[in-house]
Design goal:
Largest sheet: none
CATH class of the largest domain: Mainly Alpha
CATH superfamily of the largest domain: Tetracycline Repressor, domain 2
Number of strands: 0
Number of domains: 2
Strand content: under 5%
Number of helices: 10
Shape: globular
Radius of gyration: 18 Å
CATH architecture of the largest domain: Orthogonal Bundle
Order of helices and strands: HHHHHHHHHH
Oligomer: single chain
Distance between the termini: 49 Å
Length: 207
């Protein structure tokens, strides 16, 4: 069986890039409005919602959406990267605090975000997209924040000493699968409960 490389969207699409610095201010605002609307509609109505409907509810013309996101897959990818960037910003903010348990806050929000965007993530997986390839810098930055917060928590004794950042990231990914298996994507209470069970496994065990 031959290896199939992860697919990539066209390199001239704005969705390929984690940064929108080259866009004009009004174009950036429109793009962000489209991403926020798309995330909400995908979570509420599924992936069948059309680009034209996303444009209508974003308050922009269909041409604006199609110009930024020529395909649904490009939009899925952009939504996921945008959410990663928000998590990176949160990780940076938590790193600036002295909270020894901040890693649990970040991981909890990563799990919640994954549950809320499970349909988009499933679509990317089915299309053989890998965010670590599509947005390597953003993915690396998020992992770096988790690693730093994990080191702080380990030094404070709030996490077990034998846990590594790779294992933590694997557990986060596994949480998405657990939430999907329990059909709890649409229930913030149930998905958060599953996340807490998994996070409890990172805490030092009482003897």
């Amino acid at each position: 069986m031959t290896h199939q490389p992860s697919k990539r969207i066209p390199t001239d699409s704005p969705a390929t890039h984690g940064s929108t610095r080259e866009l004009r201010a009004d174009a950036r605002r429109n793009r962000q409005r489209v991403l926020q609307t798309a995330q909400r509609l995908f979570a509420q109505e599924g992936l069948g919602v059309s680009l034209d409907e996303i444009a209508r509810q974003s308050g922009v013309g269909p041409g604006t959406v199609h110009r930024h996101f020529p395909t649904k897959e490009a939009l899925y990818l952009a939504v996921s990267i945008d959410q990663l960037e928000h998590l990176v910003a949160e990780g940076a903010a938590l790193a600036a605090t002295d909270d020894p348990a901040a890693v649990f806050t970040l991981l909890s929000h990563m799990m919640t975000n994954g549950a809320e965007n499970s349909t988009v993530k499933s679509a990317l997986t089915a299309a053989e997209f890998d965010l670590r390839i599509a947005a390597p810098e953003v993915a690396a930055n998020l992992t770096g924040h988790v690693a730093n917060l994990l080191d702080r928590a380990r030094a404070a004794g709030t996490v077990r000493e034998d846990i590594t950042v790779d294992e933590v990231m694997a557990l986060v990914a596994g949480t998405f699968a657990a939430i999907h298996h329990a059909n709890a994507q649409a229930s913030p209470t149930r998905s958060a409960h599953i996340g807490r069970i998994i996070l409890d496994g990172l805490r030092p065990q009482s003897r």
